Structures are given as structure tokens and as C-alpha cells.
Amino acid sequence: MALTKLDQLYRAVILDHSKNPRRRGVLDKATTQIELKNPTCGDVIQVQMAIEENIITDVRFEGSGCTISMSSASMMTDAILGKSIEDALMLADEFSGVVQGEEAEHKHELGDAMMLSGVSKFPARIKCATLSWKALEKALEADGTGVDGQLKHD
């Protein structure tokens, strides 16, 4: 089956984020951090953020996993940098809906992460795409305490 031009563009953007991840590395002055694991596939992600006056002023990720998981983490860092905690949580919720086939209200704010909307056709890959976003949610909801966790099956 031939890929459409749009599918080819989506694929190119996803591969670019996987091969040239944005904000991959350790954040020396993190105010919150978390590690999550996806036990179904073994993907692991660590998300570190610096938060000042309710704004995410810096974010980094480390981890290992599939192309979808790592490119999604890179896309997430682009989307949340400079956002308030509330806006970042809203984007995480919206992204979760997008990869499950729902329409997005804030497509522009999700940026390249919208390119992962096609994951909705592959339910087994949804947890890969949402791993970093779930880590973001847990870290922000933990109020900066940082916790280790595992992504559980729903």
C-alpha cells in the first residue's frame, strides 16, 4: 500500500524527532522529575522540568524505547516549554484524546505532536505515544515531589 503525501510528511516529522530529539538530556536544575516505564513493551522515560512561578521554564527527557515513544517525548518538550502547569496538563489531556482518534481544539499548541494522530489506528502503540505525556501529568500532579512509577494497563 502506497503512502499518501500527508502520510509521508507525518512519517518524516516523526523520524526527524526520533533521530534528532529536542531537549534530550539531563536538566541540572530540575525542580521536578519522574521516571515511567511501559511494562508491555519496556519503554522507559525520565522527564525533568524546571518550574518557576507556575511556568515550565525548561524541560528535558532521557529514556529508551521505540521511535514513537522517543519522538513523542521530543514533541512534548516542544509543546510544553514556556507553558503554565495548567496549560501543560490541558495539552497532555488533549494529546491523549488525539491518539485515541478524538478531534483537538488546540492543534496549533500541540505542534508536531499532532503528527502522531495516526497512532489511533494502532491501539497497541497508544501507550508508546502517551508515555512521556503521562510522565508529565504525574510529575505536575505530584506537585514537584517527583515519583517513580509504571504506566498501568487501563
Automatic annotation (TrEMBL):
What's any GO biological process attached to this entry?
Answer: iron-sulfur cluster assembly
Q: Which Gene Ontology terms cover its molecular function?
A: iron ion binding; iron-sulfur cluster binding
Stretches assigned to the NIF system FeS cluster assembly NifU N-terminal domain:
10-128
Which CDD domains does the protein's record reference?
Answer: IscU_like
Question: To which protein family does this belong?
Answer: Belongs to the NifU family.
The UniProt entry, under NCBIfam families, shows: SUF_scaf_2 (TIGR01994)
Protein name as catalogued: Nitrogen fixation NifU-like protein
